[in-house]
Amino acid sequence: MAKRMRLDKLLSNMGFGTRSEIRKVVKQGRVTVDGAVVKDFGMNLDPEAQTVMFDDETVIYKDTIYVMLNKPQGVVSATEDTRDRTVIDLLDPEDQVLQPFPVGRLDKDTEGLLLLTNDGKLAHDLLSPKKHVPKTYEALVHGDVDASDQDAFAAGVTLDDGYETMPAKLIIGEKESREDGIYSQITLTIHEGKFHQVKRMFEAVGKKVVYLRRVSMGPLLLDESLPLGSYRPLTEAELESLQNAHR
């Protein structure tokens, strides 16, 4: 059965702009389908059988998908789950058809950057323990994070199961005093992805993470304009940076 999709979704997925930008240029008559100008950005078409032109450029349909999701709390990083909503449930049906999966995982209560793709090779490269892809998190920590914690993380800390982490870079931000103690804002860059690693690293130095979000993975930075629970295709530059970083 031929795969049909909306015109604006096709152009967005192929990197020609955001959905709102594309709707404007379609209304301006800059897009043709099979040689005819179309003004209906919601028209359904078969991207493999029909010829779409954006200005003078032929739109080449690809069946791979690369999207940046700003993951909210309360959803799990899985393709399916019998109890909880998954990150796949946040995607439009036409994107779910391409069967993307999360590259790595964020805990249910962790927010931020999550890459979803159906490109197994790229996912393997980003997750390979041999590659040591850096991942940066911002967190609010219950406890007075200080220079001794920076030194401990730089040397590597021993987790509750005996695993010794690789050196990590800890940056200390603002602090505030509350009735139950001091809270510290921090930024932490790690080079591995053990289960609950950031939380367990702070537990190893006697402190507790109360809020956590990921802001980067390798060269890919979270788009701060992306609302929680929303996603967008990677730009061509973002995809190239990911592909080139681990060749």
From TrEMBL:
**Superkingdom per UniProt:** Bacteria
- Where would one find the signal peptide in this protein? none
Q: Which residues form the RNA-binding S4 domain?
A: 5-65
* UniProt keyword annotations, A-Z: Isomerase, RNA-binding
UniProt enzyme class: isomerase
> Matching PROSITE patterns, A to Z?
PSI_RSU, S4
Record's GO cellular component terms: cytosol
Q: Which GO terms describe its biological process?
A: enzyme-directed rRNA pseudouridine synthesis
Q: What is its EC number?
A: 5.4.99.-
Q: What Pfam families does the database record attribute to this sequence? A: PseudoU_synth_2 (PF00849), S4 (PF01479)
**InterPro entries linked:** PsdUridine_s_RsuA/RluB/E/F_cat, PsdUridine_synth_cat_dom_sf, PsdUridine_synth_RsuA/RluA, PsdUridine_synth_RsuA/RluB/E/F, PsdUridine_synth_RsuA/RluB_CS, RsuA_PseudoU_synthase, S4_RNA-bd, S4_RNA-bd_sf
Query: Does the record's keyword annotation contain Disulfide bond?
Result: no
Which GO molecular function annotations are given, in alphabetical order? RNA binding; rRNA pseudouridine synthase activity
Spell out the NCBIfam families in the cross-references. Answer: pseudouridine synthase
Tell me which family the UniProt entry assigns to this protein: Belongs to the pseudouridine synthase RsuA family.
Q: What is this protein called?
A: Pseudouridine synthase
Instruction: Give the species.
Output: Paenibacillus albus
